[in-house]
Structure formats: C-alpha cells, structure tokens
C-alpha cells in the first residue's frame, strides 16, 4: 500500500489518544490571530514566520533544550480566559477531525495561569467547560489529566492537586508529573501522588524519557503510577520490561516526540517495536501535535512505514489504549468492546 493510501486508511480508523498536551496542541493560525490582537512584535504576522519558534525544524538540533524551548514561546499566547477556552475547543475539534473517538487531554494550570494571574481552579474550570462543550459538538469522549512540573515547588503541586480534585465530576480523571527527569527529582512529590491516588485520581508519570529505566521503576513503586508517560528507556532494563509485562502496565509512547526531543537518535533505534514484541502494552500518541507537526494518523502511519509494524499491530495498540483508559471499570470495558467491534470491521 502506498504511504498516501495508508494514511487515508489510518485516518478512517477510530482511534484513541492518551498522551496529548493542550499547550502543545494549538493551531498555528490561532497563534497568529492572538499575536495580532495582543500586538506581539513580529516581522510579519505569517504562519511561516512563527513556525520555527513553536515547531521543531528539520535543520534544528533535536534535543530537550530546543524541544522544551518551544513551550516557552507557546505559553506566551495564553493571555485570556477566552484564549484558553478557544484552544481547548480547537484541540478537541482537531482530535475529532482525525477520527479520535476517545481523548485524554492533559494540561498544566501553572503554565496557563502564569500571565493572566488567575487561580488554578479558574483555569481548570475553563478547560473543563470548553472540553465538554467541544466533546458534545464533535461526538468525542474527552477526559482531562492535570499536570504538575518537577521544577515547581511541592506547595505549588499541592495547590494544583486540590484544584483538580474539585473537578473530578467535570472530567478530571488523573494527575501527571512532567518535566526534566535529569535535573529535578520526583522524590519530593511522593506524598502528593499518594494523596491523589487515595482521593480517587489515576496517576500517570512522565518517566523513562530523558532519564533511564530507573525513573520508570520509581514512578511505579514510589509515585503509584497506573501508566507511564513515554517510558521508552524501560528497554534498558530487561527485568523492568518483564515486570511491565507481568503487571500489564501501559506505556504512553510518542515516537516522533522522542526523536524531536533527542531521546532517540533515529527511527530504526526507537524502542517501540522491541517493547511491543516483548509483550509490553504499548500505546501510540502524539505528545505535542504542533511541535512535531503531526496528527495521530500521521504518527501511526510513520510507525508502520518506519518501524515495520503491520496494520493489525496498530489496531492492537489502539485496543491497548482502550484497556488503559482512565475510566471506571464498567466504562472502560464498554469502550474496549466498542473499539473491538469498530476495528474488526475496519
């Protein structure tokens, strides 16, 4: 099958995304409009002028400094409640347009509130309301994951957690820890994630990305993770891989993002295939569509053409995602049953 035909087929598949950051799912055109309204100093208000500041470019060094630097620019655009609502609605609409039927969208309240100086609870309220409205309009199920960053204080994280807990009945289902594993340890946040689990939230942890397999083990044993964000460096520890298989722990793998951030040097070296072949429950995700200039359909197509996956492998990854969704058991089983039916006839 030609790659263009394959992409067309993948777009038609019902899909699930478990790892997508709201701040990394903004439309370039929306950023241009915001820049014009707020008078950002730019040589010209054109997409191609802005693109290198928010998207990884082919001639750019692919490392975590440049990758995270894109967020520094992106977060300058969240200048009002209306912008936060608009970006949320567009992120959900874009997912639905790619035939994503179930989306878990994560966002970081401190990042979204840093310029407008609002409360974390206000940010969560705006995102919840906008996501729910867009989900109804586009026939997609959306759940929300609230993220905290390793480089921020534990007190800050506690405030975010308390705000998130107030919105458990509005679509917030989990707490996430993100940021640079190498420079900022997770240990100070152990009690906070224990509290989150006790209060009924699921937990996903960015680990095994820029740091090694030991970060994944820490996430599982000390932070009570239900899923691992990225987790690709688990491959460095065969015992850990065996434990992931034994306990059915799902990894939220984002292949293009891993290349863009320098975690993996080239497609043939990506650990997705060996992890999958060894029985780990891998899921495939975009991470930040604007930074990597991809849709989920693009990502799944790349996995087939560059990692020798078959279409049936992609379908299994989608079913893995259904089985790992942060839903009550009965809802998760219903989601899995629907996807089994859809993918059987696709």
Rg, rounded, reads: 19 Å
What is the assembly state of the chains in this entry? single chain
Q: Sketch the major β-sheet.
A: 8 strands, parallel
Per the CATH scheme, the topology name is TIM Barrel
Number of helical elements? 17
Number of domains: 1
Architecture in CATH?
Alpha-Beta Barrel
Low-confidence segments: none
Strand tally is: 8
- Please state how the strands of the largest beta sheet are arranged side by side: 1-2-3-4-5-6-7-8
Secondary-structure-based class equals: alpha/beta
Element-level helix/strand string? HEHHHHEHHEHEHEHEHEHHEHHHH
Mind telling me the CATH class? Answer: Alpha Beta
Helical content stands at 40-55%
CATH superfamily name? Metal-dependent hydrolases
Name the shape in a single word.
globular
Mean pLDDT: 96
Strand content: 5-15%
Q: For the record, give the distance between the C-alpha atoms at the N and C termini, rounded to a whole number.
A: 16 Å
Question: Would you mind describing this structure in some detail?
Answer:
The chain is of the alpha/beta class. It has a single domain (3-27, 57-344), classed as Alpha-Beta Barrel (TIM Barrel), CATH 3.20.20.140. It has 17 helices and 8 strands. Helix 5 runs parallel beside helix 7. 47% of the residues are buried. The mean pLDDT is 96.
């Amino acid at each position: 099958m030609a790659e263009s035909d394959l992409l067309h087929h993948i777009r038609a598949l019902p899909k699930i995304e478990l790892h997508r950051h709201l701040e990394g799912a903004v439309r370039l055109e929306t950023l241009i409009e915001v820049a014009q309204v707020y008078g950002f100093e730019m040589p010209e208000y054109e997409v191609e002028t802005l693109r290198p500041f928010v998207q990884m470019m082919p001639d750019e060094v692919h490392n975590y400094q440049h990758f995270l630097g894109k967020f520094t620019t992106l977060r300058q655009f969240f200048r009002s409640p209306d912008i936060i609502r608009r970006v949320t609605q567009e992120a959900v609409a874009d997912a639905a347009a790619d035939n994503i039927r179930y989306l878990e969208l994560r966002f970081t309240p401190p990042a979204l509130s840093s310029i407008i100086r609002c409360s974390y609870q206000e940010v969560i309220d705006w995102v919840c309301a906008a996501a729910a409205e867009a989900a109804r309009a586009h026939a997609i199920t959306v759940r929300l994951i609230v993220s905290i960053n390793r480089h921020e204080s534990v007190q800050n994280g506690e405030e975010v957690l308390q705000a998130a807990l107030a919105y458990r009945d509005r679509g917030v289902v989990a707490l996430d820890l993100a940021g640079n594993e190498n420079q900022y340890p997770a240990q100070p946040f152990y009690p906070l994630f224990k509290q989150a689990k006790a209060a009924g939230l699921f937990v996903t942890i960015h680990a095994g990305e820029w740091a090694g397999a030991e970060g994944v083990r820490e996430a599982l044993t000390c932070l009570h993770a239900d899923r691992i964000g990225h987790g690709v460096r688990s491959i460095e520890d065969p015992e850990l891989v065996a434990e992931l298989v034994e306990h059915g722990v799902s990894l939220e793998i984002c292949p293009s993002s891993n290349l863009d951030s320098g975690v993996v040097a080239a497609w043939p070296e990506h650990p997705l295939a060996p992890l999958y072949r060894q029985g780990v429950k891998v899921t495939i995700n975009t991470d930040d569509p604007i930074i990597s200039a991809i849709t989920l359909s693009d990502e799944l197509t790349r996995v087939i053409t560059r990692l020798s996956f078959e279409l049936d492998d992609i379908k299994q990854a989608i079913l893995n995602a259904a089985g790992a969704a942060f839903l009550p058991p009965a809802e998760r089983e219903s989601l899995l049953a629907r996807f089994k039916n859809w993918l059987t006839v696709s």
